[in-house]
């Protein structure tokens, strides 16, 4: 029955040990590495870890686990933020990091196929000579497989979309060991149910992704970056709305709030004005980015935007983005010895100003420290809550505040997670957000994984 | 059991008649109108047609049909090309054309929610004053619900994507009458399985779409259109590839082949050169479309493109597109008394030149008339086969050639349908294209529609 998996037996593990040799480990340090997330959740160790090198090896391992009713947890490089890879019911962690080859690039089709353990930075390094790049940038150097599994995105989703829009096809090992290919290499298709879309964002609960075909883009001829301070949050958000309405194809448009600027000033010794600030990037031809930047500047000026400056010089661009890039380190420094977790709500952009304003009030009322950064073109923003993990009182406050922030977003017609996924901690919100639709998700889960062995306890309870 | 539905009884229909009054009909003419498609397939009439006015009425009808094991066939305005709405097993046709209200527009969020019977032209008419538009253009004035159900696209998918990328959320009546809401109004979400993506393209086999939330775009400030003739097909296709590689955000890029130009010349008395020709459209700022057009012209010239001319004048733009817009009428005129059907393959663009060349050879060898038009930026092209529907010999030839064209596309890594869907005629190709993945589709179908009452016999056989 779903969710009821037999305790992993030593006998069953022995079979995997025989199959994988020194690519099998049940050493405590290895299990610990794969069973501890940078979250609230306590460590939950898998019984063993294997490192397959091919789709066929994954399928063989899955068949073995299925025969013994052993839970299976896929693992990339462990950058997930919602406890996705914690072994809630024990079982075998399938570490895909050694399946890290770029299998094929087509410069004419602007696509490539990778093994799931290829990281996004590795992919772009290997693509450099082609003039192409893969845009999705969730911050961490996550694997493409993991990014597909959590439907990741990041700072440039406003221009390039999320993994939902950029995965063209997948190879998946099903919970019974069968291998299927979803999607294809045609840019579009109306042939049957969109299984690619179903597996993207399924968080390892329906199968294991062993190959990913993704869209690529030509490296932009020119890039301009800019920073603009605003008198009010409303001015910043209205500038974003008008920029998008006008069809300016902004590549990145990030909000950094006053508290985040203060943190950066303290951390880096900069003297930025402590006001709501937008960080921007434009991609295009030299004339195109100049036009986009100028158009944006005019919109911003009408909304109280101050001192918008932009540049195509690489060093200056890098310097401009310092405040955004160092945000997390600066935040951690606000509370020496503290740790940080990030909320991840996303709301319709028309509700963003109200939602951020109410969220800021809730953070301040809690007494916690919580700078805000946002992928504001999508309505997605993160409150970085900095706290002492040893203080039960603070941990309780952080949990309560996190819940309050999600409730605010849902009340504004938003989602509990824009890009991190449900994992273990947001299962209740998924139901609040999607109601009876979650029953359909459960029915699909039961249809594809009737024994409930694929990453049990994630996304929803069986 | 799936696919085994009881014969519709008069008693069961009486229940619907009582519920829907004069919005229930079992008149032959009405049934005929809903059971005859412009395809090879013979007419297959539903036993009755109802015209609900709300999601709740749809749900009540579905519950009634489920209780009596009556097949349910959703219907928009009947523009589908693959027999999607034929009543293969009888049953009740749910005609959604009276659910045709624009429920909500948000200019700030660039989205709107419509009832499924709103047509794309109606939507754009109602949006005109907002400065926004809905781009997806499959040619016919289809309903938004039908376009979602078949994952439609059209000439400007190269810029704006297909229904897959443009549907943000749905209200769906499930086969047991439950009402669910998928997706949401946030621009992105990682909350749970992508049910929106699953229902988009499910061709009425999983439930009935009763509300659709779609993305909108700002009406472009400037539009330029152009035409360019090429010495060779290769030159035209390579121009398309380089245009996309360079990131020129072309809004439309359509291939019209020599035979199609000849047909247009004969039909309209024009004197266009009978060569492979690209028809283009660029959207942006005045400076932007000028730059895009100029850049394109330079690429085309290097590939043997001749006499590229472009204009932003509305009348001139309309005149330029005449040849493309009149293609179907011109084709029908090639064979007085003939009818036409359209193939719909889509291949990776790197394979497009070979695939079209082989397809042209196959058409010519068959002795049939088949001009080619293509949404070439996506690798999707249509052969318009013109034939005498009364000639059993010609019909047999058309069927054989259609199969051959699909086989060629699959051999090039393509799909049997870029935008029309599987419907009744391509079920075999779906299996050829997706193999065991179709078993997963079947498992999902069984999980969501265990009685098999939703549009039975479409997409795949149970």
From TrEMBL, chains A, B:
User: PROSITE patterns attached here?
Assistant: FAD_PCMH
Quote the SUPFAM superfamilies the UniProt record gives.
FAD-binding/transporter-associated domain-like, FAD-linked oxidases, C-terminal domain
**Documented EC number(s):** 1.1.2.4
The record's section on Gene3D superfamilies has: 3.30.465.10, 3.30.70.2740, Vanillyl-alcohol Oxidase, Chain A, domain 4
Q: Which cofactor does it need?
A: FAD
- Which InterPro entries does this chain map to? FAD-bd_oxidored_4_C, FAD-bd_PCMH, FAD-bd_PCMH-like_sf, FAD-bd_PCMH_sub2, FAD-linked_Oxase-like_C, Oxid_FAD_bind_N, Vanillyl_alc_oxidase_C-sub2
Any transmembrane segments, and where?
none
Gene Ontology biological process: lactate catabolic process
One Pfam annotation reads: FAD-oxidase_C
Q: Which domain of life is it from?
A: Bacteria
Q: Which UniProt keywords apply?
A: FAD, Flavoprotein, Oxidoreductase, Transit peptide
Q: What class of enzyme is it?
A: oxidoreductase
Q: Where is the FAD-binding PCMH-type domain?
A: 42-219
Gene Ontology molecular functions: D-lactate dehydrogenase (cytochrome) activity; D-lactate dehydrogenase (NAD+) activity; FAD binding
Family statement? Belongs to the FAD-binding oxidoreductase/transferase type 4 family.
Please report the name of this protein according to its UniProt entry: D-lactate dehydrogenase (cytochrome)
Q: Which organism is it from?
A: Caenibius tardaugens NBRC 16725
| Source taxonomy | Bacteria, Pseudomonadati, Pseudomonadota, Alphaproteobacteria, Sphingomonadales
């Amino acid at each position: 029955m779903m969710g009821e998996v037999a305790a992993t037996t030593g006998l069953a593990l022995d079979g995997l040990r025989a199959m994988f040799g020194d690519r099998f480990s049940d050493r405590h340090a290895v299990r610990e590495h794969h069973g501890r997330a940078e979250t609230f959740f306590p460590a939950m160790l898998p019984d063993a870890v294997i490192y397959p090198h091919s789709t066929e090896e994954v399928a063989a391992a899955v068949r073995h686990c299925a025969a013994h009713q052993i839970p299976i947890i896929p693992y990339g490089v462990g950058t997930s933020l919602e406890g996705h890879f914690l072994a809630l019911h024990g079982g075998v962690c399938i570490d895909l990091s050694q399946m890290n080859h770029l299998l094929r690039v087509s410069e004419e089709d602007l696509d490539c196929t990778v093994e799931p353990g290829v990281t996004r930075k590795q992919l772009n390094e290997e693509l450099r000579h082609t003039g192409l790049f893969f845009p999705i940038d969730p911050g961490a150097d996550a694997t493409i497989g993991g990014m597909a599994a959590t439907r990741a995105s990041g700072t440039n989703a406003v221009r390039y979309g999320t993994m939902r829009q950029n995965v063209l096809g997948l190879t998946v090992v099903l919970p019974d060991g069968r291998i299927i290919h979803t999607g294809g290499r045609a840019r579009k298709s109306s042939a049957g149910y969109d299984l690619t879309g179903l597996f993207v964002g399924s968080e390892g609960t329906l199968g294991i992704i062993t190959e990913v075909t993704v869209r690529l883009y030509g490296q932009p001829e020119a890039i301009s970056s800019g920073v603009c301070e605003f008198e009010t949050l409303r001015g910043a958000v209205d500038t974003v709305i008008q920029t998008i309405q006008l069809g300016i194809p902004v590549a990145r448009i990030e909000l950094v709030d006053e508290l985040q600027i203060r943190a950066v000033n303290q951390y880096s010794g900069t003297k930025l004005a402590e006001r709501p600030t937008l960080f921007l990037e434009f991609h295009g031809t030299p004339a195109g980015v100049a036009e986009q930047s100028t158009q944006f500047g005019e919109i911003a000026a009408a909304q109280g935007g101050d001192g918008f400056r932009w540049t195509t010089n690489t060093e200056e661009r890098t310097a401009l983005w310092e405040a955004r890039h160092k945000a997390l380190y600066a935040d951690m420094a606000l509370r020496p010895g503290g740790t940080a977790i990030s909320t991840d709500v996303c709301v319709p952009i028309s509700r963003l100003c109200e939602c951020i304003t109410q969220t800021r009030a809730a953070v301040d009322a809690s007494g916690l420290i919580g700078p805000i950064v946002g992928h504001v073109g999508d309505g997605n923003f993160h409150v970085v809550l900095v706290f002492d993990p040893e203080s039960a009182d603070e941990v309780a406050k952080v949990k309560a505040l996190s819940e309050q922030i999600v409730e605010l977003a849902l009340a504004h017609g938003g989602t509990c997670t824009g890009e991190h996924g449900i994992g273990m901690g947001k299962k209740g919100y998924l139901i609040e957000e999607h109601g009876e639709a979650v029953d359909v998700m459960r029915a699909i889960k039961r249809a594809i994984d009737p024994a409930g062995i694929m990453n049990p306890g994630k996304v929803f309870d069986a």
